[in-house]
Amino acid sequence: LSPRVLQRQLQQAGLRYAGLLAEARYRVAGWWLLHTELPLAEVGFLSGHADQPHLTRCFRQRSGMTPQAYRAAFGVAG
């Protein structure tokens, strides 16, 4: 699948690659926050963010809360 074909198929479906990537990163970060006690910098790295402030910014945009608040509100398994 070439990049252009993927772009065209996403466009036809009304989706954007950047949006799909951001959603995937959000879900991965959420999983790590809920199921581990890893530091936020590590969660950011594992979910594909440039650094911990980038994780915090992106996570807040999607969920309305910081990663710290999300972890506190929904608990940590362990």
Supply database-style keywords.
78 residues; mainly alpha
Question: Could you explain how this protein is built, in words?
Answer:
With 78 residues, the chain is mostly helical. The protein has a single domain (17-74), classed as Homeodomain-like (Arc Repressor Mutant, subunit A, Orthogonal Bundle). Helices cover 72% and strands 0% of the residues. It has 5 helices and no strands. The longest helix has 19 residues, at 17-35. It starts with a helix and ends with a helix.
Helix and strand element order: HHHHH
- Report the sheet-strand fraction: under 5%
Question: Rounded to an integer, what's the Rg over CA atoms?
Answer: 15 Å
> End-to-end span in angstroms?
41 Å
Number of E strands: 0
Write down the CATH class. Answer: Mainly Alpha
Number of helices: 5
CATH architecture: Orthogonal Bundle
Largest sheet: none
CATH 4th-level superfamily: Homeodomain-like
What global shape is seen? elongated
Mean pLDDT: 95
- Here the CATH topology equals Arc Repressor Mutant, subunit A
Structural class: mainly alpha
Provide the helix percentage. Answer: over 70%
Poorly predicted ranges: none
- Total number of distinct structural domains: 1
SSE blueprint and pairings:
Layout: H1 3-12, H2 17-35, H3 40-46, H4 52-63, H5 67-74
Helix pairs in contact: 2-3, 2-4, 2-5, 3-4
In brief, what are we looking at here?
With 78 residues, the chain is mostly helical. It has a single domain, classed as Homeodomain-like (Arc Repressor Mutant, subunit A, Orthogonal Bundle), CATH 1.10.10. It has helices at residues 3-12, 17-35, 40-46, 52-63, 67-74.
